[in-house]
């Protein structure tokens, strides 16, 4: 299934004598030029672009034929971001070309898919250390000459699964903290020690001096690493990197698998891989955004925040809360709603949100989250009876008991909760109870 967003290319991306020309679509005017200039570190940039493209072509869970999906590129005032999801949607890759990595001006801001075809991959692979790399995102000419002939139009739908993945990743990553930083030489040695087979065992990583140590059990400060082969895309970038930073949420003894981010920094570029908790779990089904989407005011808040978004490199939650006259929790809920259209991302290195230019559809949150739809139906049907920290929910002829825990999460007697134990977001019964509690507070 693909999203409504469809991108049209004037022709294939090509490597010309004067540099690399990416064909793009979208933006405020037909075929805008987001960026024109040189990448100051051409060979690392070429390797990073190939890594992002390779993730898009790879299915790490049950590998089959390449997915051949095109990365997304966003121009945002002082940087370019190239993003992709793996074919199984369990790995999110991003290459950030930072201000130090660009020698040119971003004159238009926008988001589009990038056509990284086989000839372009071969061209990028041939970029040497002394070769200039000139990148033009969105050329203003309407004609592209190739060996095959004149202008070619190509339609590439953005997968709906990628939009759901964008929504989930930004919510999950916003809870990450930096857990370790090691030199690139130590990072290379650590990656060489990792299992090379498709192993599903859950590993945990803890700092050990200037390196990292593997352990089989979670401890405070540890980072989860399952499916270690999913870090393969970092290997080619190691020779250019200064350091490896690792990010993850807070864990304790007995914690279940959680996502993590692994980021190489060259100074001019940052290449990061965010891994889902387990190889078979795609980000599109994690359900992390559901709680934020459950508020009664979230859709209206999203419309307001959407109108206030500017094209700064980051989204300032405090400033948006002040401008909109709402609190920060409601701003984050609005960002989660916008995230269902792929409009919001999160940069763990800068602990800040950023945004993409994509059409916003207020109804997408409902369409992409059937548990949210089910919860609203239960609430509107009077199926929820609250009793302090507990509640009864009648659904499909069954009666379920939902209990609120001290950390503001819920347990439920339904099969969904019994299977996932809250690891894939709340069930529809817990969502309905949360909505009922919110509605009761608003009515007071």
From TrEMBL:
Pfam families: SWIM (PF04434). GO terms for molecular function: zinc ion binding. It comes from the Bacteria. This is SWIM zinc finger. It comes from Micromonospora rifamycinica.
